[in-house]
Design brief:
The protein has 7 helices and no strands. It has 224 residues and is mostly helical. It starts with 7 loop residues before the first helix and ends with a helix. The N terminus is likely disordered.
Amino acid sequence: MSDDVPAGPSRRWFVIVVALVLIGALGFAVGRFSTFGVAQSAAAPGTASPEAGFSRDMQVHHAQAIQMAMEIYRKTEDDELRVLSYDIATGQAGQRGEMYDWLVQWGLPQTGGPTMQWMEASSVDHAHGSTAGEAMSEDEAHAAMGMASAEELAALEAASGQEADCLFLELMIRHHEGAIPMAEALLELGSDPRALQVAEAIQSGQTSEIDAMRSIQQRLGCSA
């Protein structure tokens, strides 16, 4: 056996990291093929468009989901949770790569504008406690998106066993619940066909994953 590939559990971790890289690259390639025809027949979304804002904010959101999913995949002993965390990490890596490529194809920067500002014209409730008429701070926006704090991420990294499993489920359910309104807002405001397809997939897929995670919570006896 080559000395370049780890053995045992380390090899499994090596394989999942490689898989995520390949899936992200595949998402990038899919984005190029799916946007090529659209670019020939319709004007590309602008930097202030719902599609651009969604792409930027959802990439940040997905990055944290991948981080948390890989953390629990690495150490959980629950087979169902390991499969679910793998699906979350790989699925969102592919979507993140595609959304990155949308911005490349549209000739737009990967960052720009306050987080979630693109959602203001929608009827979706996303402010979560912010004062009407006032822009949310980055911390408020991240909270509205259901994202974990640095302290929560550190706690997940330090936890083990059932404590880690239950904390992951709590954080990821909240994380998914923050993504669904973002997808709903794009479905209301957007017009790019491929972006709308991905938003619909996020809305339906993450709703199903929330149901699965709540079922695992009950099975594991996680406290509410």
